Amino acid sequence: MATKTLKRNMFQRIMGKCATQEPGDKGSWSYENGKLIVDLSRAAELSEEYGAIRIESSEVPKRVLVFQGKEGNYYAFDNKCAHGGRRLDPVPGAEQVQCCSLGKSTYNYTGKRLSGSASSDIKTLPLSLENGKLIITV
Known about the structure:
mainly beta; Rieske Iron-sulfur Protein; four-stranded antiparallel β-sheet; 1 helix; 4% helix
């Protein structure tokens, strides 16, 4: 599978600025007992294909990237590149996620490294969809 590259300028890559934003509605998610619960009715960013959010809070033990891929499937990753620990972004139309840094490490939706300077895969997080909510095991 050929990898695609996200369009990011040099400054964005050097500074490790990812394209994925935190949810606009801070009340769209909660965390309890090792589960991150995302209410899809309040997470507008996830309503469209390749829509994504990153959840970063002292309430959650790790950074999480959540996005909708093709055909309404949802994915969650430990939002940490295996190369330098930078954040990840989904690559629209490619079924891949890519590191926001200069290394451009790219992974498929199972977390397998496809290209870039990372030497290992990344961790996907198990999730289920229940009553309009994503339940992600962190």
